[in-house]
Amino acid sequence: MTPVHATVENxxxxxxxxxxxxxxxxxxxxxxxxxxxxxxxxxxxAAKMAGxxxxxxxxxxxxxxxxxxxxxxxxxxxxxxSRTSLPMAIADELEADWSRVHVVQSPGDEKxxxxxxxxxxxxxxxxxxxxRECGAAMRHMLETAAAQRWNVDVAEVQSQNxxxxxxxxxxxxxxxxxxxxxxxxxxxxxxxxxxxxxxAFRYLGKGNVQIVDLFDITTGRxxxxxxxxxxxxxxxxxxxxxxxxxxxxxxxxxxAMKVPGVEKIVVIEGTPPPSKFQPIGGVAVIARNTWxxxxxxxxxxxxxxDGPHASYDSAAYKAQLEETARKPxxxxxxxxxxxxxxxxxxxxxxxxxxxxxxxxxxxxxxLRRASPAANARHGPRCRAQAxxxxxxxTSWASSRRM
Amino acid sequence: xxxLRVNGQEQxxxxxxxxxxxxxxxxxLGLTGTKYGCGVALCGACTIHVDGEAARACITVVKDVxxxxxxxxxxxxxxxxxxxxxxxxxxxxxxxxxxxxxxIMQAAALLATNKNPSEDEISSTMSGNICRxxxxxxxxxxxxxxxxxx
Lengths: 402, 150
Known about the structure:
- Chain A is α+β, with helices and mostly antiparallel strands.
- Chain A has 2 domains: 1-30 and 224-402, Aldehyde oxidase/xanthine dehydrogenase, a/b hammerhead (Aldehyde Oxidoreductase, domain 3), CATH 3.90.1170.50; 40-217, Aldehyde Oxidoreductase, domain 4 (2-Layer Sandwich), CATH 3.30.365.10.
- Chain A is 37% helix and 19% strand.
- Chain A has helices spanning 13-32, 36-40, 57-60, 82-94, 110-113, 123-150, 175-183, 214-219, 254-258, 290-299, 314-326, 338-344, 364-367, 372-391; strands at 2-9, 61-63, 69-73, 101-105, 157-160, 163-166, 171-174, 235-239, 247-252, 262-268, 282-287, 301-305, 347-354, 397-401.
- In chain A, the strands form 5 sheets. Chain A has a 3-stranded mixed β-sheet, with helices on one face.
- The longest helix of chain A is centred in the middle third of the chain and has 28 residues, at 123-150.
- Chain B folds into 2 domains: 2-75, Beta-grasp domain (Ubiquitin-like (UB roll), Roll); 83-148, [2Fe-2S]-binding domain (DNA polymerase, domain 1, Orthogonal Bundle), CATH 1.10.150.
- Chain B has 5 helices and 5 strands.
- Chain B has a 5-stranded mixed β-sheet, covered by helices on one side.
- In chain B, helix 2 packs across helix 5 and helix 3 runs parallel beside helix 5 (136-148).
- The longest helix of chain B has 14 residues, at 100-113.
- Chains A and B meet through helix 1, helix 8 and helix 10 of A and helix 1, helix 2 and helix 3 of B.
């Protein structure tokens, strides 16, 4: 029996993710795969959130006389592609030709659009079904408008790729020609709207649609939260406590106020830990441009009260974790005979894995894509999340025998 | 007073000459395709070209580029159809896209001097451009595709 000792100092996020893949996949699958029957009476968690669920095509879809379909994306794009996927769900149910679909971002208005709190990987889980219902309802309205135009039973007409066809006669009307009449109709109730059979999907699950922002991303035209510019807008940079749980004791802003462009200094009281979604405190320097605010922040003379973690020492904490991890663990499950298997194994491998303190998604600060209004709505939250990140330091060390 | 050329246009700037080029481009010229990532040249999101060479705009100050030519993502190709941009779209490289303009500028600078880089050369040149979404395989494939016209 040759013991092999390996210590893996895992400092890269990518390496860290590799280690998580196996368990992460299992957890996700167990938690989120819905039973097929559940989909029929799909109750989304968004119904209980601010704004709830809205699926009215009068809110999300407009069609102009040329047939151009404009679909509103009401969730903020954070890189998952939901700004493409949710409109795509509408387009698919609507039998719209994706090349004639234009996606626009909604402002922040939860009364109108339903819940817009874009986090927790919920946009698709909560809204794919409402968006499908929305597209299907619009399809029904177009079919109803066509049937009325032809004075035939609505059962004789069918939407197909941006036009409605009268099946017995083969007559066709394009969506543009029906738009005005269809949009004047009331939205049919959800229980009277028939969703497509999955086999009939044009786009969902097909991998044939590129993200709507692809061209703009590759040309620098895509607008992110940090790119927002409003009339008269000022720029703020915040000095944060260097120690989590610390707070401002006192500051001197005399030098900061002398930095060209600096206009004002604001103390943010903050929220004591666990601050969760509330901002932590600090001193904000407001200036006419980013560079002025950065230099102003750097010129602040701040005395921090480091708080309960003033003596925190990451090296000592690591040693403490190692000591704990090396102690026998509490048995919560015992399958087979591990002790005997280890004792008789031809080879044992001993390894300790390390991951650094991990800050929870600080780049959400600048990443979130939204219209200015939505940004104003979500911006403070993003900052709160980033702030919270520093309070939710995670650290782990584990040892195991194989 | 600093004079420089940005995307072919003469510019003069009489503000703080120690301001990083990043903020000059973004705040003064409105060229927001150049992104702020780390501010200390560790991530590559702000990559631009200075006289054709890749540079990090966050640590390049305005006075450093006096009399020089700066190209940003907005000026890489008038129609956004530089071979690297086309390859990026053909291979669906971006996910969130935030780092991608920097990635594209870094790749374009590489291909300007090395028409057919090896995979190792691509990896080492692109290693300073971090992608939180982890699009690295597609980035490497797209640089190759742009090089070969595939």
